[in-house]
Design a protein that fits this description.
By secondary structure, the protein is of the alpha+beta class. The chain contains 22 helices and 30 strands.
């Protein structure tokens, strides 16, 4: 209820860009030239930024971007009136903006004889004197009349010289390549067929080019429609392959005549016209012509057996890319729920249970009223912590949290923070909030009624901060690794466990007599949590070390630290050492003895890890096996299941397997030795990746195939190593969203997103002889963490490779 009130009150004040700026599109046409006209009006005191900003500016320019089309050519930049200018001293930045009413224009040159619809995107960011609203995109479309030329080629000649002839030496793609589209249909399935013929000495690129970073591949793209679903990639004959030494690039091409096919599943019972785009690049031995794109259409008959499609599917990515998996949500919820119970057993919270419940039962006129008030008190506790999680998500955003969790400086900062929390729990000092906050909340709680109960819950949150603050902070850090609404879910689980006893003991006050009395055992619980915080802190320091590959905290050192931390914890539990605020231990309780014994067993379990034991139970926490002083095990060289030296260009990877870190080198080697390429999109700080490598890769029936039957390339999406300057290119992640690929990690993350439309790691694919994806699909942690399932996927890929080799 509290959360709903918070959200509804927040929504009442939300501002939208389209309420502050209005616009109207029109077209002015004169023969083969036309001008897109945008009349923009800003509400008083609001403005938008200029269209043509200096290159160094961090402002978001106002854009009028027509879609790419062979029907026209965009000429020049956006034409705008002189913007208002001032220098922002606080930000030390030049501001160029427009306010009130103004007009933007953009010219195009028409290349089409037929009438057409011009579509595009209008984007801007609007601000007033105090704040800016989020960037806004709006689509636009305008009707354009054909200009009367017979073809785009004619328009080019006229633009050059009215007396120019088509024999003047200019070359056009449509003169070198011809095509014809048709359709083969069988019930609810149909195949788009493109018969393409190249002139003698000319060729076009293949459709399925491995790692097609420059978009050279021939494309047959059907427009999105509810009448059908595209169910497969383009089918093509085996292309001619050679390696261009000068460009250091693999070339896949077709010459003379070639037939491309693409299958669709019909979901319409009525006949319809399928429209799409056909695009290619054509070259001869000496040069390439500009990319060419044209429209195509084929008539399709509806099928009586068709089942109407309600969701869009994709054979390239059957599992939808989700920021947060259900498994992660439930994991963070139950971990947070357990942390809430741990916080309940601290000296700051536990003694408040009988006092609070006694207050409700004595002050309420009836038992029912006492239960109702205590229940509302519990709901208020949940609401306060959930609002905290909501604020973290809202302020920082899911993508920022997830991005931050892979940054070395962010992990170092949280290592320091968790060490401070741990030292506080051990009794060196207490982390408290300003006493004025507590006093004001306590005073407000005296008002009575529901408002007074809410402030009582707030007093609990503030007074218990020295015990709950480190736990809450740790939970929010862990939630950052998952992103999305994980902070909200984490706070929900934590507060639910914290609030539950208050409501239950109010309903059944007789249970209070069976509760253990407050005492020194609560301090022991607090110290125990401090040791856990200290151990977890080194996980974040390890993340930072892995991100920069400093090799300062390798696997042996990490395990040595954990063995020491949990060894000292065992000594504390058995009473051999004491910390500040501890009383005399006396006789050990059964619970403390059992817990101490469990910790000793855990320490003994970790010790063989110093000599190379896999430690599957904690595989997600230490650095991977290959990130150690002795990657093959102490005293081992080539006898530890791996050759002493792998193929040129490889590195020792998980399970002592030699892996490539470069896609092109791996592809060349896989083709040379005749093995499928196993592509592993992974991360240095990817917990699920380590779990797969330790618990699945090393299993019998899998490890031998990974070592002997495939070539592995591990592509780290968080590799913080700068790319060469010539490779630092700007790419489009999504319409209007540009990013400069600066690091090796940026490159592989973009490759995964661009090709497979998914961001999660680990993500595995198997490629065929020519770099094409094999039809066994993908493998990941969520669906393939069972070794048997992963082995079936791997075996299927190996069989498919043999069938197409």
């Amino acid at each position: 209820m509290a959360l709903l009130l918070f959200v509804s009150n927040g929504n009442a004040q939300i501002e939208f860009p389209e309420d502050k700026v209005s616009w109207d599109f029109s077209l002015e046409q004169n023969g083969c030239e036309a001008t897109i006209v945008v009349k923009v009006t800003c509400v008083e005191h609001w403005h938008v930024y200029g269209a043509n900003l200096p290159e160094a500016s961090f402002l978001l320019p106002t854009e009028v971007e027509p879609d790419k089309s062979s029907n026209y050519e965009v000429i020049g930049k956006v034409i705008e009136p002189k913007p208002e200018f001032y220098h922002d001293e606080a930000a030390d930045e030049d501001i160029f903006q427009h306010s009130n009413a103004f007009t933007l224009k953009r010219k195009i040159k028409i290349n089409s004889k037929e009438d057409f619809t011009l579509k595009g995107r209008f984007s801007f960011q609007t601000c007033d004197e105090s704040h800016c609203l989020p960037p806004f995109d709006a689509d636009f479309s305008l009707k354009v009349k054909g200009c009367g030329f017979e073809s785009a080629k004619g328009a080019v000649f006229k633009a050059l010289d009215e007396n120019a002839s088509e024999d003047s030496g200019l070359e056009f793609p449509e003169d070198k390549v011809s095509w014809k589209f048709s359709l083969e249909q069988d019930g609810t399935e149909a195949t788009i067929i493109a018969d393409v013929t190249c002139d003698e000495g000319w060729h076009i690129y293949a459709a399925n080019i491995p790692n097609d970073e420059f978009g050279q591949g021939t494309r047959i793209e059907a427009e999105k429609s509810s009448n059908y679903t595209v169910i497969a990639k383009i089918e093509e004959p085996e292309p001619h392959f050679y390696h261009d030494e000068a460009a250091d690039e693999d070339i896949y091409q077709h010459s003379k005549t070639v037939r491309f096919k693409r299958k669709i599943k019909i979901t319409s019972k009525e006949d319809f016209t399928l429209k799409g785009k056909f695009a290619f690049i054509t070259c001869d031995e000496s040069h390439c012509l500009p990319p060419y794109e044209t429209d195509f259409s084929v008539e399709v008959k509806g099928s009586a057996d068709a089942v109407e499609s309600v969701t869009e599917t994709s054979s390239d990515n059957p599992e939808k890319s989700k920021k947060i998996s259900d498994m992660s949500i439930w994991t963070i919820f139950f971990l947070s729920f357990g942390a809430g119970f741990a916080a309940l057993l601290t000296p700051c919270v536990f003694p408040m249970i009988p006092m609070t419940v006694s207050f409700f039962t004595k002050q309420s006129k009836s038992k029912a009223a006492g239960i109702r008030n205590a229940t509302f008190y519990g709901i208020c506790i949940i609401g306060i912590y959930v609002i905290l999680g909501t604020l973290v998500t809202w302020i920082f955003g899911a993508s920022i949290l997830n991005w931050l969790s892979t940054q070395w400086w962010f992990n170092v900062a949280f290592f320091i923070l968790l060490v401070v929390f741990a030292v506080s729990f051990m009794g060196a000092f207490e982390i408290t909030l300003p006493s004025s906050w507590v006093n004001k909340a306590d005073k407000a709680s005296d008002k009575g009624g529901l408002i007074g109960i809410f402030f009582m819950a707030l007093v609990l949150a503030l007074v218990s901060f020295s015990c709950t603050g480190p736990i809450v902070g740790t939970l929010l850090v862990e939630a950052a690794d998952i992103g999305g609404i994980a902070p909200v879910i984490g706070m929900l689980g934590f507060s639910l466990a914290l609030a539950l006893p208050f409501a239950l003991f109010a309903a059944f006050p007789g249970w209070l007599n069976s509760m253990p009395k407050s005492g020194g055992w609560l301090t022991s619980v607090k110290v125990f949590l401090g040791f856990l915080e200290l151990a977890l802190a080194f996980k974040f320091l390890s993340n930072a070390d892995l991100a920069v590959q400093a090799h300062l905290l390798e696997r042996e050192m990490f395990l040595a630290i954990w063995i020491a931390v949990f060894g000292v914890l065992a000594m504390y539990l058995f009473g051999f050492i004491q910390l500040p605020h501890d009383g005399p231990v006396g006789n050990l309780s059964v619970g403390r003895t059992l817990l101490g014994t469990t910790v000793v067993v855990f320490v003994v379990y970790m010790i063989p890890g110093l000599w190379g034991a896999p430690l599957k139970l904690i595989s997600a926490f230490p650095p991977p096996m290959h990130y150690s002083e002795s990657p093959m095990g102490v005293g081992k060289s080539g006898g530890g299941g791996a050759a002493e030296h792998g193929p040129e260009g490889t590195h020792l990877g998980p399970q002592n397997i030699w892996v490539f870190h470069d896609m092109k080198k791996a592809q060349a080697y896989a083709k040379k030795v005749g093995k499928p390429l196993f592509v592993d999109f992974t991360g240095h700080n990817c917990v699920n990746c380590r779990a797969m490598e330790q618990s699945v890769w090393g299993e019998a029936g899998i490890i031998d195939k990974l070592k002997d039957d495939v070539v592995i390339t591990s592509l780290y999406v968080d590799e913080d190593v700068d790319l060469p300057l010539e490779e630092q290119v700007e790419v489009e992640l999504a319409p209007g969203k540009m990013k400069t690929l600066k690091t090796v990690g940026d490159k592989w993350a973009y490759t995964q997103i661009k090709k497979y439309k998914i961001t999660a790691q680990p993500y595995y694919r198997m490629l065929g002889p020519n770099g094409e994806d094999l039809d066994n699909g993908s493998a990941d942690y969520k669906n393939h963490s069972d070794p048997k399932v992963f082995q079936n996927w791997l075996d299927e890929g190996l069989k498919l490779y043999k069938s197409v080799k």
